[in-house]
Amino acid sequence: MKKLVSLSMALALGASILQGCGSKTGSAKEFTASSKGFGGDVTITAIVENGKILSATAEGKSETEGKGSLAIDSFNNGELGVKSGNDIASSSVDSLSGATVTSSALQTAWKSIIKQAAGNTDSKKTTMKEGTYTETVYGNNYSRPFEVTVTLGKDSIDDIQVTDIGGETQEIIQTVIDNLIPRIKSNQSLAVDSITGATASSGGVKTAVKNAIDEAGGDSSEWYDEIQYKSDIVELDGYDTIVVGLGGTGVSAFLSASDAGASVIGVEAAAKVGGTSATVGGPMAINPKNPSVQPESGTEGYPIDTDAFEKQWIKDTNGDAKKECIDIMMNDSGSTLDWMIEDHGFSFTPLSSFMIYPYILYSEYDIQNTITQMYVNALDEACKKNEKNKYLTEVKAEKILSENGKITGIEARGADGTIYKIHAKSVILATGGFGGNAELTKKYTGTKMNLYGMYQNDGTMLAYAVENLNADTYNIGTAGITHLARTTVDLKDSSVTPSHQKTLDAIVDSTDVLHVDEKGNRFTQGDRAEDITENAHKAGDYFWSIVSDEYMNDIKENGLNQVYMMLNVQDGSLPIMAMIDPSVEIPEENAKYILKENDPITDIDKIISIGEKMGIVVEADSLEELAEKTGATDLKETVEKYNSYAKDGNDPEFNKDKENLKEVSGKKYYAIKGTGYSYSTCGGLNVNENIEVLDKDGNVIPGLYAAGTDSMGVLLSETTGYIDYGGIDHGWCLTSGKIAGENAAKYASK
User: Fold this and answer.
1) How far apart are CA 693 and CA 427, in angstroms?
2) What mean pLDDT is predicted for residues 471-487?
3) Which residues does 575 contact at the CB level (< 8 Å), separation at least 6?
4) pTM of the complete model
5) Distance between CA 729 and CA 718 in Å, rounded?
6) CA-CA distances (angstroms) from residue 90 to 49, 111, 174, 422?
7) pLDDT for 233-259, tens place per residue?
8) Rounded to an integer, what is the distance from CA 586 to the centroid of its chain?
9) DSSP designation for 287
């Protein structure tokens, strides 16, 4: 038995290779090959003559902007090793750090083109050295890798084990273990689709297998045999209500409709229920009655004065939020929490305030097992109430069916290719918004959103309702819910100290750093890290954090003087309770990933060098040069003004605290490319107090409901964005879901 260890960037998705060869003029020939990247096919077209590359062009329209798109651009610019005039037989594609998913697709497609050009159509796989190979790869976690052990025969993938989940979420990686790994083994192919809701974790496992094959002397590009999918059509009839999406919103709607006596079917695109809701703290609940969630007797500000709070809410949203929907939160969010506890077995902690707001209305899940398990237990009990009740996972809804202006069901597609036509009198959309769709986020919010949440929340059904049912939207341009900013591409490199891989992220969240938009202008005050993260969208698709060599030299010797706590919390290295209670034990394995203040960043020079190659650090000898390299045309003027404010100790533009006003000066200057990472979008469809979707004329679309972040714009304003009173998003998910379920069941019974 042989054990080899390699460290590799992951997020890689397998791909079936589509080959073709067509003659050009003379002896030149055109070859094409495609491989699945993160968002879809990555296709290379090459023209070759007498063994020489005349041209090679890659296209990947669905790759993530600023990540996968960089690899595509780098390939087309000849920066990844493939250039016009080179011998094709000896050419290869280099990997672009931070964009391994797309790089892997490019490499696989290029290997196919080389074989086509050589006239090699032999389908026999290269013999491998039998053994067990251990790979350390990255998945969804932005700083903590995981370990996969692959056992190979001479011409077979015999076993795949996730031997250490590292920073991966247990519930998510488990869907990969339960679904993806058996499919790779049974198909003996890496072309199987990644698991929806676990795309990055799936990519990590695929990368591990790919690397193991190459280390064993095989050729991983040979292991992408096309997968055969079903073409069956399954008709499911006689339902009262269909719930599309089974995160917190959908589960609440399913339970409510079932309680009301409806026959209910739920469909979920991911391989597990829970969605983004399984990653949150908890909901807003205003004045619930259940004893288990009551704050200590005499707590100031409790119970909440709902009249005064509603007036403040309306003021904080500039009057744009719908009063009838704010009323729902005032009157029903508390009773919704009671209902979940008393009728469906959920547990929550006593109410408290959240962050800087004084309102006693935030309750976290009191987790005995996992949030997902609470959801599963409740759904399974609801299914017992009616023999027709059931829910399907790995089934993605694609169309809303209607007839004569009334909703009649949905059409969905299973992971195995099966088409489901499900017929019902009402449909509840609970799909988590559209943050996973860069085209829609750019269209509606003006920026291409990066997600901390779930990419299966791609707005397919929301867009279908708008385009085909004349559905109206409300505050759909509201910026996403963002609690952390990081670099646009994560620095995942084993040559850097594990915790120091987050150094650049810490800088883009630092309050004593100058942050500017794409043009070089300031966009926020920045006295609190939350102010930077929550306003990152104002800068555009990204922002620049500007420092000098003096700053870099200082952190090299003395470490960072601040590290935003969410940076260590969101990757799971620091338990959130450890910030409140110092006695909370931190697992030994976690400690090396925790970025600490005053820890000298001795490898900052290496971090800068890697960052430059990844496109997230720009270095220059002058502000003029930095402005030219970044395209931030107003940068020099902005820095000069900012430096004058720092000298005076007064910021007339944003009133930044003088303690945070630090001059940007030195012999070299650096711009670090940052962006906000959102849980989800906020705006969505327009609904009334019954959570019924309205059309553009203000009329109800009979039988169609939209709850949770599919309609949360009714509580907010595009001008002020999300408000952190404490759990508004999750409170609306559970509360609007419950109301939608009740009303959908009532409508179906008519």
Assistant:
1) 10
2) 95
3) 584, 586
4) 0.89
5) 15
6) 15, 11, 40, 53
7) 999 999 999 999 999 999 999 999 999
8) 26
9) S
